[in-house]
Amino acid sequence: MKNKKRLSFVLLIMLIICTGFNRFIRQSFLENSDNAKYVNTFIGTGGHGHTFPGATSPYGMVQLSPDTRTMGWDACGGYHYTDSSILGFSHTHLSGTGISDLGDFLFMPFHGEAKVIPGTPEEPDSGYRSRYNHSNEKSSPGFYSVLLDDYDVEVEVTTTKRAGFHKYKFNKSGKSGVIIDLSHNIYPDHKPNHQFKVISNTEIAGYKGSGGWAVTQDIFFHAKFNKPFTTIFYENGKKIDGVPTGKSKSLVAVLSFDTSEGEEVLSKVGISSVDYLGAKKNLELEIKNWDFDKVKNQAHKSWNKELSKINVKGGTENEKTIFYTALYHTSIAPNTFSDVDFRYRGMDRKIHQTDKENIYTVFSLWDTFRAYNPLKTITDPDRTNEFIKTLLSKYDQGGVLPMWELQGNYTGCMIGYHAVPVIVDAYKKGIKDFDVEKAYKAIVHASTYDTINITFPSKRIKNILMPMGKFYNETMDYIPADLENESVSKALEYAYNDWCIAQMAKELGKTDDYNRFMKRSKKYTQYYDTKTGFMRGKNADGNWREPFDPRFSRHRKDDYTEGNAYQWSWFVPHDVPGLVDLVGGKETFIKNLDVLFSASSELVGDDVSGDISGLIGQYAHGNEPSHHISHMYNFVNQPWKTQEITDQIMRELYFNDPNGLAGNEDCGQMSAWYVLNAMGFYSFNPGDPTYSIGRPIFDEVEIDLPTGKKFIIRAENNSQENKYIQTTKLNGKKLDTPFFTHEQLIAGGKMEFKMGKLPK
């Protein structure tokens, strides 16, 4: 008996050692592979992609990037590839959003006489702007460099999670320095309130209080230089004697020093939403010395670790670049919001303390619930848990789950209540290391018109965070188009969100809730007009809104959100069989789908939504409501058409150049769609842990699962011509349908496609 116990103990120890060794091997592989070399950070910086090319770390608080413009729709990322001058380098940026904000703490090195106003793109010499050339511009994950032509200064920047690191090489001797502009914003600042603190002749700190898309923002910085400086302050363009003692609407600091030819000056900058001390701690704990290359290399390693969770073979060099750039874009946001001491600013604007867990900001949930968040359930379930815990903390502090949360603010942007599918999808996939009962209470509350105990930052946000559409949906059983804007889109999204709630209710044994929300999920049927074959707005008197043209769009001022009837009539991901029956059966359903992809791309209206882009027929890949539609053919026994369309989208609407995105990147959603589909599948209906098979781009994909297992996807006879799947096997067994489950994926194993030229 003792020998058996001893043997069991030995076997246990060996298992632990082997497990640890396997984890070590996996960790070493992740850190030493170099998928980062494929990333082109300039993809999406042209057109309407709204990305930025600068340095950041995975999910980092700091996004240290050059700003070339601050106004207009294509200024959302602070940079546009068509611009020819740089304002400076600010420390916070949004990745691919459709609304501008951030651009905090602009640093601009100069040589010669300092200018304290930015100047204009047309006349850069009128301010501190500098011309630059793309030939002298380099970027890779965690690093950016450029030559400022007007000053002959070479700039390099890199980051840790919460701090930025600047290196300036002054190619001319004489008077030089750095301008710090606290009034710089990538948005119209409605509540400027700024402050500087001179710590010493090598240290300076500052506070920026502002209000834009996020109504109330507080952010601090602490900067250290390796060279002593003198400081002159300017308020509203005028010199101030001494150090400003109060807070001001417009403050600029000019830090001056003499430099010799070729001299390098370094600056380290920590930021925090909490206070000055938080910014200082973030800096001192994350960048402990002046070794710029060491920090740059660490940033590169952190990106390689992130990008090596998926490894591909085959495909062209351009396809690998598009893929890994897309994977890179899916790891920028949400951004870390808690400091190194785990303090953070809550939705109630108070300072809170976590228990050694990260808190995040920038939740573009209307976009990301579709593909981004499902991708993270595969590659990063632990971080998915952190995301959900963050959402629940915001629910605790603000009274309701966020709709487009930014910097600890409710913006109320977009429609639906899409924290719900993020939570439910994770829960259904076994990711549930959070307070499940609280989460359930929160998602039910999100579906309800209830303004009590919610911290509304303004009346405007109250009205969009708790729209009357919820009230009408509860009291009238539908949303009248003449009483509520975007009625059709809201109703369809509410129906889907309610279906998600029903799934969690079922798992928790809440039968009454399950039945209630399943009934609510069928409300989409009321908006289908059999005469026109489209989802339409219905007035309070029960009549269809007239006139009607499915091509018509009036941006955010009609029955549809950033789209038209063609795109929105398909948003029933939770009940495709019901939609098939509603339109009159499979033949009609297929015919209507075919028309969607083959119709004229003409749009009608005086104020057509700019978000309707990336058109194939009336399918609009440049905006999220269309993203699931290509996979609907799988539900009506025509999978070859899903393969055709997904192939067309990937080849015609994603490119390896600045104009490489068909629409806003939207915090990783546009890229996540590509990542999933390039691997050969898609999360069609988040909340249902089932994947829909499409068309694999690569000969082999290896997903390195967090459990230590691998899921391998191989495509035999794969080529641009051989885009049709002939047979599919999962772990040696033939699949009879174009679907498989999350459970099958995370168990590890092998999926094998045999490809051919003809549909099958």
Please explain how this structure is put together.
With 760 residues, the protein is of the alpha+beta class. The protein has four domains: 31 residues; 269 residues, Distorted Sandwich (Beta-galactosidase, Chain A, domain 5); 122 residues, Up-down Bundle (Glutathione S-transferase Yfyf (Class Pi), Chain A, domain 2), CATH 1.20.1050.60; 150 residues, alpha-1,2-mannosidases domains (Glycosyl hydrolase family fold, Up-down Bundle), CATH 1.20.1610. 30% of the residues lie in helices and 23% in strands. It has an eight-stranded antiparallel beta sheet. α1 packs across α3, α6 crosses α7 and α8 runs parallel beside α12. It is globular and about 80 Å long. The relative contact order is 0.09.
How would you describe this structure in keywords?
4 domains, 760 residues, 30% helix, Beta-galactosidase, Chain A, domain 5, 6-stranded mixed β-sheet, Glutathione S-transferase Yfyf (Class Pi), Chain A, domain 2, 23% strand, 8-stranded antiparallel β-sheet, globular, alpha+beta
